[in-house]
Amino acid sequence: MAVFTPLSQAQVAEFLQRFDVGTLTQIEGVPSGTENTTYFVTTDRQALVLTLFEQGEHDELPFFVDLLDYLADHRLPVPGPVHDCQGVALQSLAGKPALLFPRLPGKHPSSPNLAQCEALGETLGHMHAVSRHFDGHRPNPRDLHWLVAMHHRVLVYLSADDQALMSDEVDAYQAFFGDAPDLPQGALHGDLFRDNTLFDGERLGGIIDFYNGCTGDLLFDLAIVINDWAVHADGSLDAARHDAILRAYQARRPLTDAERAAWPMMLRMTALRYWLSRLLVVYVDPPAHDLTPHDPEQFRTILLSRLQNGALALPEIHPA
Ligand SMILES: Nc1ncnc2c1ncn2[C@@H]1O[C@H](COP(=O)(O)OP(=O)(O)O)[C@@H](O)[C@H]1O
Ligand SMILES: N[C@@H](CCOP(=O)(O)O)C(=O)O
């Protein structure tokens, strides 16, 4: 379940009066979320999504509002928050911070086809081309500093081989990124898995759930995408999906030489980032609700595959 704060029809109807969105006809709790309370809200004029923030740093919400406003203004398929009649987006409802969004069309792709991979790559390249100029700032909460600080907390739960694997990897990232030239910076989604996209057939209807959004290495976002969108069950890369995403991405934002050099290491580091964050959820900081945690093993397998097989060759650049 993901309705942590139940709302009545009357509460939502009164809330909607702050906005110019029409009159409430229906509310429906969304079961699939994991962190926040989400309701689909329908009025006589439009379909909306209401999010109540249950956890996290609430003082970071203005960053997410600014980022979504910025991306929506640049015609990216993201749900730009609805602003009330006074021009304010961030609200309070039932004692929780609340945002209202347009409901975007589509479904999460479990097994994306090549056209969907191309659409995602093209949109992410577009997003990164414009997000380089976004002037907000939020350090990446899952960057190398986080890996260095947090990996000690799970070592005790791992086999001797896995302890060595994790520690050696973190050392290798520190050695590599400590000496590497700076990579292009900008705003990132930070968690662009398939289940944070909505596809209407082959059209990308929207990218949602920007609450890992931050500013940092753009390559970090791209590596997260490849490790989720272009893998087989054994962790190996699917060459056709990999190339479809990276060709379309680079038509919008070609990778620099420094990014190309860092790519194999970034694929490993973002695989370990999820192995670690999932281990932390399972062993160190389990959530209060009873949702089944994501499987850490999946990202250990991906990491081992990147280590054993390296990265695939990056496709040729075809600028638009
Ligand atoms: N703007 C939107 N348009 C359509 N569906 C949405 C939108 N925002 C969220 N959803 C739906 O609600 C679900 C939960 O939202 P999400 O922000 O991912 O919650 P959580 O952070 O709790 O996981 C999503 O998986 C998606 O199905
Ligand atoms: N998509 C992630 C969950 C979000 O990551 P977190 O670091 O914010 O817990 C996953 O599949 O594990």
Keywords:
9 strands; Aminoglycoside 3'-phosphotransferase, Chain: A, domain 2; binds ligand LJ64HWYM; 5-stranded antiparallel sheet; binds adenosine-5'-diphosphate; alpha+beta; Phosphorylase Kinase, domain 1; globular
Q: How many helices? A: 10
Low-confidence stretches: none
Q: What are the distinct ligands in this entry?
A: adenosine-5'-diphosphate, ligand LJ64HWYM
Number of strands: 9
Estimated structural class? alpha+beta
Structural domains: how many = 2
Radius of gyration: 20 Å
Strand content: 5-15%
Shape: globular
Second-tier CATH architecture of the largest domain: Alpha-Beta Complex
Q: What is the typical, i.e. mean, pLDDT? A: 95
Query: CATH homologous superfamily of the largest domain, by name?
Result: Aminoglycoside phosphotransferase (APH), C-terminal lobe
Q: H/E series, N to C?
A: HEEEHEEHHHHEEEEHHHH
What is the CATH fold-level name of the largest domain?
Answer: Aminoglycoside 3'-phosphotransferase, Chain: A, domain 2
What is the CATH class designation of the largest domain? Alpha Beta
Largest sheet: 5 strands, antiparallel
Percentage of residues in helical conformation: 40-55%
- Widest β-sheet, arrangement of strands: 1-2-3-5-4
GO biological process, one term: threonine biosynthetic process
Protein name: Homoserine kinase
Keywords: Amino-acid biosynthesis, ATP-binding, Kinase, Nucleotide-binding, Threonine biosynthesis, Transferase
Family: Belongs to the pseudomonas-type ThrB family.
